[in-house]
Amino acid sequence: MSNPNRSKLNLLIRNWHRGTVTVSPWLISQGYSKNLIYRYIQSKWIEPIGRGAYKLYTDTIDWEGGVFALQERMKLPIHVGGKTSFQLRGYGHFINQKIPDVFLFGEEATKLPLWFKNFDWKAKINYTSTTLFRNNPDLGLMTENIGNQFSITISSLERASMELMYFLPHNQAYDEVTLLF
To answer: What local confidence, expressed as pLDDT, does residue 100 receive?
Structure first.
C-alpha cells in the first residue's frame, strides 16, 4: 500500500510551478493540513520565505514568482504595470538595470502581504493602490509568460503608458516618459 501523505507530496511537487511562491491558505484549500506543511518543511521539501509563504526547498524565486502567488494563489487584484510592463515586453532599453524597479498596481485599499513586502526580491518594489481604472479595473490587462513556467498579469503598453503618466510630474520625469513613448 502507498502512503497517502507521500502521494500528496508527490502531487504537490509535480504541480508546483518552478520559480513561484505558494501560500498557506491555498495549500490548506488543496487538502494540506498545517501539520503536513510543517512536516514538509522539516523534511526540506518546502521552505518558508515569510509567514505563510513557501517555495520549493531547492528552487530559486524572484519577484515574478512572488507576483504569481499574489495573483493566482491569493487572488489579489494586483498587476505589474508602468515601466515594468514596458521592460517585460522588451521595451526596457531606457530603464536602469542595476537594481530593477518593479512597479505593481492594485485596486483601491488592496495591500501587499507582509511576506511579500519583507522578502528580499533583489529589486525595489514600488506598489501603488489606485483608483485610476475604477470603473473597469481589468481594462488593458494581459497575460505574460515567465520562462515557460508560469504567467502573470501585466498592463498592456497602452495602460502602462497611462500608469506612467499617473506619476507625472512628482515621481516620474517627463524626459523618461517621452523616451519610453
So the answer is: 80
